[in-house]
Every structure is written in structure tokens, then in C-alpha cells.
Design goal:
2 strands, two-stranded antiparallel sheet, globular, mainly alpha, MFS transporter, 449 residues, single chain, Growth Hormone, Chain: A
Length: 449
């Protein structure tokens, strides 16, 4: 695949491969020289793109917030004794589905011949699949039907997530990637808080409102990006893909690309650490502090999410500016990972809600420092900008695999000495170890400071 030149030639060569224009007429672009250090393959975007890009991340956060409240609350209403196990079951199935589909979406996106561009179709289709999933969740009468709806939601958001991550390589210059990573990370954090609050507020309406109202809002925010993105367009088919190419969709050699591999390991363990907390936060509050009233649980969860979000926002912007001005990504990631580990230790060391909230706030600060440089670090470790969709699909595995493995880990960890699955201290200890491993992994990256 040839990289497009940002400025189309009025007299193009008929053998061109790509265009940066998303609307007719198609303006073919001459094959471009190698990209400079701060160049991008896409073209200049309007202010509406930047707004909708951030709103898409906000929508993704709302979706996460909804899932963290609505699903466990519904499971607890159905069968309190089986809620932890049932949640692990649903999250494992959903994680397996997006583990398979998201990297494939990335590879197909890179090779897309759609008149809409190479990324926009996946924003649209992913949003609509997620909306269908919310409709299924809203009317699910049983665990299996709820699992089907959850799979559809996660697969849909997997397609959207693949796209917004890939746009960092397509459309955002290296010199502002850290601050944009901070902005989008902050939008996600605000979205999570909003999703948690909104899902709790509409819970009295019932199952339908708890899923459709915040879920529908998240989809609307995401789909706005479809209308504002000036996408790259492929003008000629990609080379035929053989079976080896299919396997490459899920693999990059760690020996050939060690920086990419270590950055991937860092993201995997950091994601696993925070997923261990967020996925079980509702049940942790209920079990750890002996609260059974859903309204009280939601209130504490909202406080914890607010503390997390506030510190996340502050540290994301502080470290985003520092990272872009210094060109250094690794210090932010290391500080963020270690701060998260320290916050988790504090959160689980005392049986008091105040200490728990302070600990979660410190975790939020660590996550803010981490996200300020995470996306910038990953995109600067990519082997090739031409295969950004495929390679970022592999990056996606680093935050999709925890969706499968953490519920399995959580199922067994919470049952150490507790047949009903309420040993959340063991779960948090595991999350601490994961954060420390993430801090170590990023020190092994050599090509990025």
C-alpha cells in the first residue's frame, strides 16, 4: 500500500493507489516520498473533526461506564450469589469475541476499497452493531441473551475503538500526539463517570432505560465522527492476501520488532490492572463494605469514579504537555504505572470507604500520567504507517485480551478463601503486580525516549 501525499496533484499518475479525499470527485495522489518525522498520511481536517474525534472517545467512555453498572446490577438482581461468576462468564465471552474480530477489522480497514474511505465504514458499522446490542441487553430475559447482547456491544465498540486508535497514526502529527492522547484519555474518563452516573440515575426506569438511554447516547456521540472525518481512500485493490497474511493479522515478531513487543506488554498489563478494578468495582463496593442497597452502591461508585476522573484529568494534561515538550514518553508511563500500583495498595489496605476513595483517586492520577503518553508511545513503535490499521489491531489485543483473562483471574482470585467470590483483596493484589510489570516492560523500549 502506497502512502498518500497530503496535497493531490491535478494531473495524477493513473497508477496511484490512495487518496486522502473522502468525497467525490476522487482526487488520486501521486506516490509520496517517505513521511518526515512529523508528517501524516491523511489530509488537513476541519475543527468539527477534532470535536467529534474527542466526542467519540467520550462515547466510548460512556459505554464502559454503562457496562460497569448496568450488567452487574442486573445480575445481582437476578441472583446475588451467582453475580460474580455470571459477570466473569459474560465478560469472558465478550472478550473472546472482540479478541477475534477487532484485529480482523483493522486488517480489512487497511485494505478497504469503500467510497466512504478506509476508516469511516467501521465507525458506522461498529456504532450500529453496538446499538443493536444495547437493544438486546435492554430486553434480555436470561443470562444467555444478556451475553449475546453484550457480545454485540463489545464487538461494535471494538470496531469503533480500532478506528479511533488508527486515526492517531492517520491524522494526528507526532508533535501533538501526547497532548491529544491526554485529551482523549480525559474524554474517556469523563465518559466513564457520565456513564456510571447516568446508568445509576435511570436505573429506576428499569432494564430498558438502564441500557438504551446511556447506550444510545454513546452511539450518537461515536457516529458523529463518521460525518466529519475526511478519510483516506484507496483507489486500487491491495495485493492479494495469502494465508500467511491472515495469520499476520494477529502477529508481529517480537524478535524483529522488540520495541513494539515491549510496548505491547506494557499496555497489556496496565490494561489488565485497571480492568481488574473497573470490572468488579460495583461488586467490590458491595462486598467489601457490606452494602446491599443498589442506590448506595451506585452512590459510592459514582464518588470513586469522580475521584478517579478528577485526578485523571489533571495528571493527563500535566504529563501530556511535559511529554510533548520534552519528546519523552517512557517517564510518564513508568510514573503512571507505579502510582496506580500504590493507589491500589492503599485502596485495599483499609476497610474504610474514605481510604478506598483516596486510593482510587491515586489510581486515577497514575492512569492520567499513563494515558498521556500511552497512545503516542504505541504509534511511535509501529513498524509501518502503511499498515497502521492492522498493526493497531494487534495493539488492540493488548486491551482486548484482559477482557478475557481478567474475568477468569477474577473468578478464581475472589474465591480464595471465599466460596461466594468476595475476596476482592486478592483481586487488587493481582492488579498491583500487573501495574509493576507494566512499569518494568516500558523500560525495555529502546527506540522511544
Amino acid at each position: 500500500m502506497t502512502t498518500p501525499h497530503p496535497d493531490p496533484d491535478p494531473d495524477p499518475d493513473p497508477e496511484t493507489m490512495m487518496s486522502t479525499h473522502a468525497v467525490d470527485p476522487v482526487f488520486p495522489a501521486d506516490p509520496a516520498p517517505p513521511l518526515t518525522a512529523d508528517a501524516i498520511p491523511g489530509q488537513r481536517q476541519t475543527r468539527w473533526f477534532w470535536i467529534s474525534f474527542v466526542l467519540a472517545w467520550l462515547g466510548s467512555g460512556i459505554a464502559q461506564g454503562v457496562a460497569s453498572v448496568a450488567i452487574p446490577q442486573l445480575l445481582k438482581e437476578w441472583d446475588p450469589d451467582r453475580a460474580t461468576g455470571d459477570l466473569s462468564f459474560i465478560l469472558t465471552l465478550g472478550g473472546a469475541a472482540i479478541l477475534i474480530t477487532t484485529p480482523i477489522f483493522g486488517r480489512l480497514s487497511d485494505r478497504s476499497m469503500s467510497r466512504l474511505g478506509i476508516r469511516r465504514p467501521w465507525i458506522l458499522s461498529g456504532s450500529l452493531i453496538a446499538l443493536a446490542g444495547y437493544a438486546v441487553q435492554a430486553t434480555a430475559p436470561s443470562l444467555l441473551v444478556l451475553a449475546v447482547g453484550t457480545i454485540l456491544v463489545l464487538v461494535g465498540w471494538g470496531a469503533v475503538s480500532m478506528t479511533v486508535h488508527t486515526l492517531f497514526a492517520d491524522q494526528i502529527r507526532r508533535s501533538i500526539r501526547a497532548i491529544m492522547s491526554a485529551v482523549t484519555g480525559a474524554a474517556t474518563a469523563i465518559g466513564i463517570l457520565g456513564g456510571v452516573s447516568l446508568a445509576g440515575a435511570v436505573a429506576p426506569i428499569g432494564q430498558v432505560g438502564m441500557f438504551l438511554i446511556p447506550g444510545g447516547l454513546a452511539v450518537v456521540l461515536a457516529i458523529m465522527l463518521f460525518f466529519t472525518l475526511k478519510d483516506i481512500r484507496r483507489l486500487e485493490p491491495a495485493e492479494p492476501m495469502h494465508w500467511s497474511g491472515v495469520l499476520d493479522t494477529f502477529w508481529l515478531s517480537p524478535r524483529r520488532y522488540p520495541d513494539f513487543a515491549w510496548a505491547w506488554v506494557c499496555r497489556f498489563f496496565m490494561t489488565a490492572s485497571i480492568v481488574s478494578v473497573t470490572s468488579y468495582l460495583y461488586l467490590t463496593i458491595s462486598g467489601r463494605f457490606g452494602i446491599d442497597d443498589p442506590t448506595q452502591i451506585a452512590a459510592v461508585q459514582t464518588q470513586a469514579t469522580a475521584a478517579f476522573t478528577l485526578m485523571n484529568l489533571v495528571m493527563a494534561f500535566v504529563f501530556g504537555v511535559i511529554s510533548d515538550r520534552t519528546g519523552r514518553r517512557k517517564p510518564s508511563v513508568i510514573i503512571g504505572a507505579l502510582a496506580s500500583a500504590g493507589g491500589l495498595v492503599l485502596a485495599i489496605s483499609f476497610g474504610d470507604i474514605a481510604f478506598f476513595l483516596v486510593g482510587i483517586a491515586i489510581v486515577g492520577a497514575g492512569q492520567g500520567a499513563y494515558i498521556a503518553a500511552d497512545v503516542a508511545l504505541m504509534t511511535e513503535c509501529l513498524p509501518s504507517v502503511e499498515d497502521a490499521g492492522k498493526d493497531l489491531g494487534i495493539v488492540a489485543l493488548a486491551y482486548l485480551l484482559p477482557g478475557i483473562l481478567v474475568p477468569v483471574f477474577g473468578f478464581f482470585a475472589t474465591r480464595i478463601g471465599s466460596p461466594t467470590g468476595e475476596n476482592f483483596a486478592a483481586l487488587y493484589i493481582g492488579a498491583v503486580v500487573m501495574a509493576v510489570i507494566a512499569a518494568f516492560a516500558v523500560t525495555r523500549v529502546k527506540g522511544v525516549r
